[in-house]
């Protein structure tokens, strides 16, 4: 085989507000590679199949001097994220040709040669699920939802702080605690909704389009609304108080949740997308309520929960996905050249579901 | 005995900012009572000895229509708080003449006749400690510090997230985790400092006067500063990161603690005095850090912790106070007529230590 173009998505400049396709990141075709002859130096050659585009990636588009929990992207180098690929050649005994692998630091390029295989794991796929599944519901978003729900929610089928809920009189069975899930149609939120329903809870869920609202209803949320057309405070005043808050938004929505919280409420801080394009700052005014209501607010990073929950995750979730008991949606885009636009869509919330870049067929 | 004047402190009007003595509360001498003949109707007659003035009382000075975790004071009625008294006469078999009792809803008056004895408990005082002790270090402030520290701090003598601390090279022994205690000279904070030192931690503590700073040093804090003359962010940048934050302040100080927090930090939300005289609202901007640093922020109300921790509290603390191993300070004012001024002093932080109203001798 002769050399082929090795397409790459490079980090080009630090954005001030929203990332700009072609400026923040650029699609580059200047590199070539010969897959048959490229030296592996004891490493592996991986063909990229599927890449994940996630909200948190905005946080890596910062000056290298600013510290955070994940490294900043390097100017001029490929951006990275969660991905799935197939091993084409291997000089590392841990991997063999045909193995499918995933990693949280998959470079955004067609072909990857790497000696350092830290973070690459062979995927066990006994249910023959599509590889994109391992980006979404069985990938980082799925792990995020599952592990933080298990670790922090303390979901109670019988509420320890029951409240009079006359508006629930039309339900035929008694309800457990109430959870409010933001970005409930997203890959994380939609799994949280389904885990909460399996735990017997009443689920209130919000999203930003009618299509997303419809999807949240389909997967079982009891109360769904479009936060762009309905005020969150109004819905929570009517359907609350809430015992658990799954926060992907921060800012005003977090204040609304504090107002609507029941005594002893648990807030699971997964993300604060309202702050990502405004310097990671959005004022929250009602924190005093954490005292009067004995609320706990817990932040987490999924990587720190993996050692504890990985085994239970892979035991529990793949069979439920294979049988269709857990539903999920994917929003698949074709080719590395779409990455810049998809990153922006995810920051603005205009994507329809878990955003996946399909880079190559298996 | 003929009728005597029964002095009372009445709630007179809802303040907008700081409470005003003589306007928010008034000292009233229009009621008389004959202790020998007043009808008890199956209840008790209690002589008030000591009353506690606490920051949280500002929260009860609100319109009755605004709900919160403690009831609003009633206009025209005596204000209430933690107090200690002695039973003068009793028609209730639970109490006998000479019993000393405390309650969190002690009315601010010289003599109390009550049939409803909910919340009144006989004080067990085997070490013959002064009754004022049961207002401060063995009263609500002491319970607040002890119970929340036990419940939430998870203090580690060997830090799970060790950091390079070159500035500690002059310490001869290795240090445990680091805690930052605000209002560290107050009745709650000063006990937190001592509990943290007993747990082997490095303690950073702040207060608002040189006298208070000196007291924090005396009770063992490693790093002390006056937040009015030294910037909190500067001290924390040099002496942090912090693993535990004892918050009595909220607002900007809470933001500074978020900036200085270590991975996995626990924030114990005891109070937010920076918000009490500005509508219980002070913006916090850096909450996104709870995610990147896996911070948990826990609010509590001491009453909800009592069932779990009361026994250990009374077993542990009184002997340590009696032996002098746990130090405490009291700021004693004489007579109910001083209550309005002392409430204001506590809101402004101009009192020197735990504010106690000495109402009558035993």
UniProtKB/TrEMBL annotation, chains A, B:
Organism whose genome encodes this protein: Gymnopilus dilepis
Identification of the protein by name: Enoyl reductase (ER) domain-containing protein
Keywords attached to this entry: Oxidoreductase
Keyword Lipid metabolism recorded: no
InterPro entries listed in its UniProt record: ADH-like_C (IPR013149), ADH_N_2 (IPR041694), GroES-like_sf (IPR011032), MDR_fam (IPR045010), NAD(P)-bd_dom_sf (IPR036291)
Domain Oxidoreductase N-terminal: 10-105
Top-level division of the source organism's lineage: Eukaryota
Annotated Alcohol dehydrogenase-like C-terminal domain residues: 187-315
GO molecular function: oxidoreductase activity, acting on the CH-CH group of donors, NAD or NADP as acceptor
Pfam family for this entry, one: ADH_N_2
């Amino acid at each position: 085989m002769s050399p082929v173009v090795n397409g790459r998505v490079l980090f080009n400049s630090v954005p001030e507000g929203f990332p700009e396709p072609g400026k923040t990141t650029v699609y580059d075709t200047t590199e070539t590679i010969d897959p048959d002859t490229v030296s592996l130096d004891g490493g592996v050659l991986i063909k990229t199949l599927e890449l994940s585009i996630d909200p948190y990636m905005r946080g890596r588009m910062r000056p290298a001097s600013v510290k955070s929990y994940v490294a900043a992207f390097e100017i001029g180098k490929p951006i990275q994220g969660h991905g799935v690929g197939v091993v084409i050649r291997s000089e590392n005994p841990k991997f063999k040709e045909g193995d499918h692998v995933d990693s949280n630091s998959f470079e955004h390029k067609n072909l990857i040669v790497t000696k350092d295989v830290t973070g690459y794991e062979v995927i066990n796929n006994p249910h023959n699920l599509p590889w994109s599944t391992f980006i979404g519901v069985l990938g980082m978003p799925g792990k995020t939802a599952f592990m933080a729900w298990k670790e922090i929610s303390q979901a109670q089928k019988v509420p320890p702080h029951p409240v009079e809920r006359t508006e629930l009189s039309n339900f035929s069975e008694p309800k457990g605690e109430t959870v409010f899930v933001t970005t409930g149609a997203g890959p994380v939120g939609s799994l949280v909704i389904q885990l909460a329903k399996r735990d017997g809870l009443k689920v209130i869920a919000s999203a930003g389009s009618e299509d997303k609202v419809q999807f949240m209803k389909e997967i079982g949320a009891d109360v769904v609304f479009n936060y762009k057309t309905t005020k969150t405070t109004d819905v929570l005043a009517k359907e609350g108080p809430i015992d658990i808050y799954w926060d992907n938004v921060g800012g005003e929505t977090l204040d609304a949740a504090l107002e609507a919280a029941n005594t002893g409420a648990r807030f699971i801080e997964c993300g604060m997308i309202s702050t990502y394009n405004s310097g990671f700052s959005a004022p929250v005014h009602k924190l005093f309520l954490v005292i009067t209501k004995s609320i706990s607010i817990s932040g987490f990073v999924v990587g720190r929960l993996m050692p504890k929950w990985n085994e239970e995750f892979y035991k529990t979730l793949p069979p439920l996905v294979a049988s269709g008991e857990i539903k999920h949606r994917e929003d698949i885009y074709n080719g590395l050249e779409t990455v810049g636009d998809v990153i922006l869509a995810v920051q603005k919330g205009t994507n329809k579901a878990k955003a996946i870049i399909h880079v190559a067929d298996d």
